[in-house]
Amino acid sequence: MTTRSADNGTTDSAAAGTALATGKKTNNSYTGVNASGVPIANITELCQLEGMATGLIATSYEYDATPAAFSAHASGRDSYSQIIKQMMYQDLNIVLGGGINYTGYTSSENSHTIENLGYTLVGTRSELSSASQENYGDVSENMKVWGTFQEDKHHMPYDIGYGKNYDGLDDGNAKTPTLAEMTQYSLDALSKDEDGFFLMVEGSKIDYGNHHRKMTESVGDWIAFDEAFKVALDFAKEDGHTAVVVVPDHNTGLMATPSDMSAVVDKVKNGKDPGDDLLDFSSYENGGDSGHTSMDVGVWMYLPDGVTRMEGTSDTGLKSRNRGDYTVDNTNIAPYLVSLLGERTLQRTTDELYVNVTNQGSYSDGTFSYNDMDLKITCDTDIIKYNGNKLDLKGQICPYVNGKMYVPKYLYTAINVEYTGPEAV
Questions:
Q1: Sign of torsion, CA 306 312 317 321?
Q2: CA distance 385 to 32
Q3: pLDDT tens column, 99-111
Q4: 8 Å CB contact between 158 and 214
Q5: Phi, psi at residue 292, to the nearest 5°?
Q6: What are phi and psi of 124, to 5 degrees?
Q7: Among 82, 77, 81, which Cα is nearest to 64's?
Q8: 341: which of 32, 44, 218, 308 lies 20 to 30 Å off by Cα?
Q9: Are 149 and 97 in contact (CB under 8 A)?
Q10: Are 421 and 409 in contact (CB under 8 A)?
Q11: Which letter, b or e, does each residue of 311-350 get, where b requires 16 or more Cβ atoms within 10 Å of its Cβ?
C-alpha cells in the first residue's frame, strides 16, 4: 500500500490516519481535514449516522494522530485541546488509551468533563473488566466507557514490561489492560448493538520503538498487537458478519534483523533488551531518533464469506509480476469498508455534517453567534443554545477550523428551522 501525503512523499501519522479514515489525501500534520483545511467526514462518523456503535483504542495518548484522524478535525495534529474537545462531545461509545490529563499536551480537567458527559471512567484492568455491559439496552445510545489509563502520562505502559523505560513509566508493574484485553472488552460490548459496530484499534508504540531505535519496544508492541489481532480474528470467525483489516499507516525507520529472529522474540518476551544494534537506520548513523520513510506497507484482511475482496488485493499467492496488480493506496481503505455498509458514502456524510456557515455569524472566545437569530454554538462541541434553551446535536460536532465555522444539517432540524443553504462543503 502506498502512503504518501498530499504535500510530501513521506507521510506523517496525521495525514496517513486521515487518508485511512476518510479516503482523502491531506497535508502532513492536517487531521480530519482535506488539503485545503476543510473538514471531511471519517468512517467513524458515517457509522454513527448509520446507528452503529463506535469505539477507538490506542496505546499512546487518546488524542494522538491516529485516533484523532478517526474522530476529529483540526489544521494541526498538535491542536490537542481542540481535538480532545471534539472527541469528548462526539458520543463515541468506547475510548481506551492513555494521557487524557497529560498537561504536557492538554488540560488536567479532561476526565472531569468526560465524566460529566455521562461516561463511565475506568483507570485499571480490573475497573475495565468490571464495567457493566449487561444493561445498556440500545448500546449505540446508552453505552459510554472511557479509559483513563495512565491519565497524567504521555501514553500507556508497554504490554511486555521492562521496568523503567525511556519516559519513566514503570511498565513492569502496570495495572492497565493489555491491547488484547481492551480489544476483547470492546468487541464484547459493541457487538451488542443490533445495527453493528466500528472499532479502530492501534498498536501505537510499534512506531515509538522504531523512532527511538529500540528493538525491545518495537517488537514488544508488535507482539501485543498480534495478540489483539487474534482476538479480533477469532471474534470475526465466530460472528460471521465482521470484517477485520490490518494496515500500518506508514513505515518508520529501516529495520535490519538478525537471521535468528526467534531468539530476539524470546529475549523480548522475557523482558531482555537484545540490543540497539539490531536496529540499523542507515540515514541516522550518528544516533538520534529515526524518522518515517516512504516505503510501501502491507494490507491484510479477513472478510466474511461472500464478501468481495478489495481490488488490488489477493486471496492467494501472487499470480503476476506486475506490481500495479497488487498495489492499493491508503485512500482506498475507507471507501471499500464503507461500500460494505450500504448506500451512504463518505462524500454524502461530509455534505451532511459540515456546512460552512461562517458568513452567517461571528466568532468570539469559543462561541459562534448567528446574526439573524438567537443561536449560539459552543465551538468544537455538539452543544448549541437557541432562544436561551440549551440543546445537543447528538454527537454531531460543530468544528471551528482555520477561521471558519461548520455545522451539521441536523442543527436546523434540532431548532425546527428549514434548511435552505448555504451549500455543503
A1: positive
A2: 26
A3: 777 766 666 788 8
A4: no
A5: -70, 160
A6: -140, 170
A7: 77
A8: 32
A9: yes
A10: no
A11: eebeeeeeeeeeeeeeebebbbbbbbbbeeeeebbbeebb
DSSP state of 298: -
With H, G, I as helix, E, B as strand and everything else as coil, classify residue 365: coil
Burial class (CB in 10 A: 0-12, 13-18, 19+), 17: buried
Question: In this predicted model, what pLDDT tens digit does every residue of 227-266 receive, in sequence order?
Answer: 999 999 999 999 999 999 999 988 877 555 555 667 767 7
Give 281's Cβ-side CA count (13 Å radius).
22
Q: Per-residue pLDDT tens for 315-327?
A: 776 666 676 677 8
- Catalytic residues, by residue number, are 13
Count the alpha carbons within 13 Å of 420 in the hemisphere toward its beta carbon.
Answer: 4
pTM over 0.85? The answer is: yes
Q: SS3 of 137, please?
A: coil
Q: How far apart are CA 357 and CA 394, in angstroms?
A: 19
3-state secondary structure 49-83: HCCCEEEEEEEEECCCHHHHHCCCCECCCCCHHHH
Q: Is cis: bond before 422, omega within 30 of 0?
A: yes
Residue 230 CA to residue 196 CA, distance in Å, equals 20
